[in-house]
Amino acid sequence: MTLKARLAQKEILVAPGIYDGLTAALATAAGFEALYLSGAAVAYTRLGRPDIGLTSVTEMADAMTLIADRSPLPVIIDADTGFGNALNAQRTMRLYERAGASALQVEDQTYPKRCGHLADKALIPASEMAGKIKAMADARASEQTLITARTDAIAVEGFQAAIDRAETYLEAGADVLFIEAPQTRAQLGDISRHFAGRAPLLANMVEGGATPMTDAADLQEQGYAIVIFPGGIVRAVARTARDYYESLARHGSNAPFAERMFDFNGLNTVIGTREMLAKGATYDRGDS
User: Fold this and answer.
1) Which helix (H) or strand (E) holds 229?
2) CA angle at 170 for the pair 167 and 174, rounded to the nearest 5°
3) What is the DSSP letter of 102?
4) Which of 229, 143, 216, 224 is nearest to 189 (CA)?
């Protein structure tokens, strides 16, 4: 099922954050219907740096290519600001679409951007953002590839300005609306009521972020179509990795940590080593 078709259903779509082939495979095995490739997660894991616009369009496209090779699920990919002006945004659309993305999320921050839950963000004019959306729509090869328009205006210009910007982006051709970092539950509800029945709405759950944490069932009841948990996996992995390295440094052995990790055979089971070797053997033998 395409992402576009899935969003026509009533049940909210939960898209967990991923950043590489392994996390994509694990999330797919857990039974999710779609994935979210977070620019922040790629910055955290590949660069070991914060989400302040340091990742490049080619690094993100490379990650998307590897993920598409590992999972058949539709992927919503973070396109940041389109990595420049409207022409850059068109190139981003072409690169991401060829890499296998099902939806591109583009935002109205200045470039370089920063995480939506950090302070001191700055925005481009709404008209410039509308031009990027139109340019991306013109560049996409398939109408099944969706454009998610994100506005960071709540923290910069206020709540009503965010609503007004989202209206502009919807008129410009956005398929999904993402009003970043509502500060209260009331704001979450006001967004949903304002756009009810007009476009699928995306909510972003960030542990420790500006938006009150809630669950998918609650967001569905409020009228949201998608909820993403973009950086949760990185926070989980980072804490586990820190504990692992501290344990190894302290004990000189993995034995005290063994119950919190896969052994060699366990990891090979997860990544399908036996099945891949068996498949390769059929080609070696020339089986028909």
Assistant:
1) strand 226-229
2) 150
3) S
4) 224
CB 237, CB 26: distance < 8 Å: no
- Note the pTM of the prediction, 2 decimals: 0.95
Q: Give CA separation, 116 vs 20, 180, 236, in Å.
A: 22, 7, 20
Which residue, among 170, 174, 154, has the nearest Cα to 162 in the 3D structure? 154
Q: Above 90 in pLDDT, residue 116?
A: no
Hunting for tokens 């034995």 — which residue is that?
255
Helix and strand counts by DSSP (H, E) for the chain = 13, 8
Cβ contacts of 255 within 8 Å, gap of 6 or more: none
Residues 157-171: tens digit of each pLDDT = 999 999 999 999 999
CA 195 to chain CA centroid, Å, is 22
Alpha helices for 120-259 (secondary structure H): 126-139, 153-156, 159-172, 185-195, 216-222, 232-251
Q: What is the dihedral of CA 164, 167, 169, 171, to 10 degrees?
A: -140
Phi first, then psi: give them for residue 203, nearest 5 degrees: -115, 145
pLDDT of 288: 65
**pLDDT for the residue 115:** 76
Tens digits of residue pLDDT in 27-77: 999 999 999 999 999 999 999 999 898 999 999 999 999 999 999 999 999
